[in-house]
Design goal:
Order of helices and strands: EHEHEHEHEHEHHEHHH
Number of strands: 7
Structural class: alpha/beta
Protein name: Glycosyltransferase family 2 protein
Low-confidence stretches: none
Bound molecules: uridine-5'-diphosphate, magnesium ion
EC number: 2.4.-.-
Largest sheet: 7 strands, mixed
GO cellular component, one term: plasma membrane
Strand order of the largest sheet: 3-2-1-4-6-5-7
Shape: elongated
Enzyme class: transferase
Radius of gyration: 27 Å
GO molecular function, one term: undecaprenyl-phosphate 4-deoxy-4-formamido-L-arabinose transferase activity
Length: 320
């Protein structure tokens, strides 16, 4: 490890904030001369002057490093790239818009190094955001808490601290930055803590996410839950439902045929097989059953052939 702390900052059109934010970080870190640190700014395809400013800053402040994407890939991609390049023993992420306060950095660092947390998530207990954001956000946090079993109040806080091992071993893609603690937990990093942090209103620029964040956030939660449970064996999910459906269809068919014979035998009024609701139910159940089964099978083949990049995380080794 080259530094005590890597500060990873995703940047998308934040030109006004960057110099102030850098100064502020440097001021805070100057009070803690024993902590070495690097700043990593990931320009996520900004169309304003952000990149020029990052380049200028990187000449003035050392070590401040910048990485520029060719287009806007999203915050998750920016974080992922930052994580890959981070050389600090503790990696701290914060938003570029100065809503998160750098004053929290030393305490977050201590919680990871001294208290042994794998992840410490900021909690914007007193938020300075419009109500259209805070109320849905409460709901979102409640659902995520229930589904993941992680007791955090504020999953989507941009200010978080990670033990280096955590960020090197998880993969953040799509819009999954909202669920990094969930991804981490499913990868075996269980010591997840929380720290109340100061939060401020956005000073410059505007928010990059509208209300669609809640819909996408919810869909992401579904897929992340699903993938983490069934990635290794899609057949367990699809196969189970497929088999159930097929068995149901099978027995309904037997019943329909049996009844027909019975009616013929006893010379009762005979109904056309195709003239009753049960027939269609049986048909649908059989087809859906086979379809689900096939989906599981195809999923299984894909899993078999995809490289396992980050699956098994070794905690420690001995006697080598
Ligand atoms: N961001 C990014 N790529 C995007 C959207 C946002 O890197 O496509 C960055 C943005 O510059 C900021 C952070 O992610 O540093 C959080 O964005 P924002 O403040 O707009 O989100 P909010 O605070 O409204 O949740
Ligand atoms: Mg913000």
């Amino acid at each position: 490890m080259k530094y005590n702390i890597s500060i990873v900052i995703p940047v998308f059109n934040e030109e006004e904030s960057l110099p102030e934010l850098t100064d502020w970080i440097n001021r805070v870190m100057a009070i803690h001369p024993l902590l070495s640190y690097e700043i990593l700014m990931i320009d996520d395809g900004s169309s304003d002057d952000s990149w020029n400013i990052i380049e200028e800053l990187s000449q003035k402040h050392i070590p401040l490093k910048g990485i520029k994407f060719s287009r806007n890939y999203g915050k998750s991609a920016a974080l992922h790239t930052g994580f890959k390049h981070a050389k600090g023993e503790v990696v701290i992420t914060m938003d570029a818009d100065m809503q998160d306060s750098p004053e929290e950095i030393p305490a977050l660092y201590d919680m990871v190094v001294k208290d042994g947390f794998d992840i410490v998530s900021g909690w914007k207990k007193k938020r300075h955001d419009p109500i259209s954001k805070t109320i849905p956000s409460k709901f979102f946090n409640f659902v995520t808490r229930k589904i993941s079993g992680i007791k955090l109040h504020d999953f989507n806080c941009g200010l978080k601290a990670y033990r280096s091992k955590v960020v090197k071993n998880i993969e953040v893609y799509g819009e999954m930055h909202r669920y990094i603690p969930v991804i981490a937990k499913w990868n075996g990093f269980r010591k997840i803590g929380e720290k109340v942090v100061q939060h401020r209103a956005r000073k410059y620029g505007e928010t990059k996410y509208g209300l669609e964040r809640f819909l996408y956030g919810f869909l992401d939660l579904l897929s992340i839950t699903f993938v983490s449970k069934f990635k290794k064996s899609p057949m367990h999910f699809f196969g189970a439902f497929g088999t159930l459906s097929f068995i149901a269809g099978f027995f309904i068919t037997i019943y329909i045929i049996g009844r027909k014979f019975y009616e013929i035998h006893y010379k009762l009024p005979v109904r056309e097989v195709t003239d009753q609701p049960l027939f269609f139910l049986a048909l649908v159940a059989l087809i859906v059953g086979v379809q689900l089964f096939l989906a599981g099978f195809v999923g299984e083949m894909i899993t078999m052939n995809s490289p396992r990049k980050i699956d098994y995380i070794v905690d420690e080794q001995t006697g080598f």
